[in-house]
Amino acid sequence: MAIKPKYIKQLGNVLIQEYPDSFNTDFETNKESVEALTTVESKGVRNRIAGYVTRKKAQSAASAA
């Protein structure tokens, strides 16, 4: 796993805390949610945040099962 920048992790964690029902383990859905909930203009940053959120949701789903 690559080390993600601090701002990616911080924004991803804030989004998960404030909008937990907006995200799931599907990257494409999360990408759209990040675009709708933030003002991030860069496609690369948006995808990194969506990827981080997807990974966190998958980890929490795996640990809950």
From TrEMBL:
<dbReference type="InterPro" id="IPR036401">
    <property type="entry name" value="Ribosomal_eS17_sf"/>
</dbReference>
<comment type="similarity">
    <text>Belongs to the eukaryotic ribosomal protein eS17 family.</text>
</comment>
<dbReference type="GO" id="GO:0006412">
    <property type="term" value="P:translation"/>
</dbReference>
<dbReference type="Pfam" id="PF00833">
    <property type="entry name" value="Ribosomal_S17e"/>
</dbReference>
<dbReference type="GO" id="GO:0005840">
    <property type="term" value="C:ribosome"/>
</dbReference>
<dbReference type="GO" id="GO:1990904">
    <property type="term" value="C:ribonucleoprotein complex"/>
</dbReference>
<dbReference type="InterPro" id="IPR018273">
    <property type="entry name" value="Ribosomal_eS17_CS"/>
</dbReference>
<dbReference type="InterPro" id="IPR001210">
    <property type="entry name" value="Ribosomal_eS17"/>
</dbReference>
<protein>
    <recommendedName>
        <fullName>Small ribosomal subunit protein eS17</fullName>
    </recommendedName>
</protein>
<dbReference type="GO" id="GO:0003735">
    <property type="term" value="F:structural constituent of ribosome"/>
</dbReference>
<dbReference type="GO" id="GO:0005829">
    <property type="term" value="C:cytosol"/>
</dbReference>
<keyword id="KW-0687">Ribonucleoprotein</keyword>
<keyword id="KW-0689">Ribosomal protein</keyword>
